[in-house]
């Protein structure tokens, strides 16, 4: 992505930034395909003729669908469901891809002192998806009871054997599985000879090469007014990962409830309204946005380094932004 060395600046007040993807595309030979995966709409954009790109695009979709089936919490016939069914009783031999995601989740959890925790799946009474029961918050008593099953350190990994060692434990890999799935899609396109492509997974974006001779342009939206595009950043061979309280949410008795949960309480995180992280390597930012949504502005400088750019906004419209980050007008 060609990121410069970062300097940091804190803003006491500012406009509210959160990520989303917008493209400025030129030329007729740009192919766009979209499907619903991982509970969101995923889009592949690549320059070229449809007939030439068809095999590569089909292979990328197939690989991402394979990984989604393996890692999704929305299925009852995959290893994630099987691990929950065996929780507290016996281990399960799982695919290397799932082990890799769990190992990375462990790393992020340790780094963030538990602000990121894939065992938040135990808070099973929240309903943020369309088509689910009428949304209302679980009772405090239910959340306190379920909190006893939330602890990333209770995931035991021995080679390809995995055990959730407390009854009632469940995984929710939504905060850490999306980027590796998108990365696998990009890698498949690369293996089929594509040099230029972008995959947008609902605001988490991986890009390689360029479009119409220029870097890809990724827009950042205001989460308090998501219809408004505040500016764009140029991305070439890089990643933008986003977390925010304006997607997958509901309002109950005048209060906004969103899907990024604080592992300690089971309540929606209150640290940030939204954050965008930009880096050349998706591994360096995977899961980090979720952890920062819990911990807030004070943790950004500790948990990001010179290879990561960030823009984040906390309650009270307090903004933190990498000084080197420049937003172009939309």
UniProtKB/TrEMBL annotation:
GO terms for molecular function: metal ion binding; transferase activity. Pfam families: ApbE. It comes from the Bacteria. Magnesium. Can also use manganese. Mg(2+) binds at residues 175, 290. Its cofactor is Mg(2+); Mn(2+). Keywords: FAD, Flavoprotein, Lipoprotein, Magnesium, Metal-binding, Transferase. It catalyses: L-threonyl-[protein] + FAD = FMN-L-threonyl-[protein] + AMP + H(+). Its EC number is 2.7.1.180. Coiled coil: none annotated. Belongs to the ApbE family. PANTHER family: FAD:PROTEIN FMN TRANSFERASE, THIAMINE BIOSYNTHESIS LIPOPROTEIN APBE. This is FAD:protein FMN transferase. It comes from Inhella inkyongensis.
């Amino acid at each position: 992505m060609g990121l410069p060395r970062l300097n940091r600046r804190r803003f006491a007040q500012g406009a509210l930034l959160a990520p989303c993807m917008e493209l400025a595309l030129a030329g007729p030979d740009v192919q766009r395909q979209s499907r619903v995966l991982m509970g969101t709409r995923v889009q592949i954009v690549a320059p070229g003729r449809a007939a030439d790109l068809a095999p590569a695009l089909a292979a990328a979709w197939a690989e991402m669908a394979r990984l989604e089936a393996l890692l999704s919490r929305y299925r009852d016939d995959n290893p994630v469901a099987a691990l929950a069914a065996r929780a507290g009783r016996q281990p399960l031999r799982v695919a290397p891809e799932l082990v890799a995601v769990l190992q990375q989740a462990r790393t992020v959890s340790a780094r963030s002192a538990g602000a990121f925790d894939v065992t938040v799946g135990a808070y099973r009474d929240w309903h943020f998806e369309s088509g689910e029961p009428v949304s209302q918050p679980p009772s405090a008593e239910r959340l306190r009871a379920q909190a006893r099953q939330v602890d990333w350190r209770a995931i035991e990994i021995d080679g390809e054997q995995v055990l959730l060692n407390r009854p009632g434990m469940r995984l929710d890999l939504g905060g850490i599985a999306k980027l590796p799935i998108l990365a696998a899609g990009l890698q498949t396109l690369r293996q089929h000879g594509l040099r230029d492509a972008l995959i947008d997974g609902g605001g988490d974006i991986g890009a390689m090469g360029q479009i119409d001779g220029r870097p890809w342009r990724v827009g950042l939206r205001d989460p308090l007014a998501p219809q408004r595009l505040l500016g764009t950043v140029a991305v070439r061979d890089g990643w933008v990962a986003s977390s925010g309280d304006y997607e997958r949410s509901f309002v109950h008795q005048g209060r906004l409830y969103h899907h990024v949960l604080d592992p300690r309480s089971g309540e929606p995180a209150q640290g940030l309204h939204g954050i965008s992280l930009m880096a050349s390597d998706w591994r360096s930012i995977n899961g980090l946005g979720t952890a920062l949504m819990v911990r807030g502005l004070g943790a950004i400088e500790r948990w990001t380094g010179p290879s990561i750019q960030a823009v984040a906004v906390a309650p009270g419209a307090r903004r933190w932004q990498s000084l080197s980050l420049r937003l172009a007008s939309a």
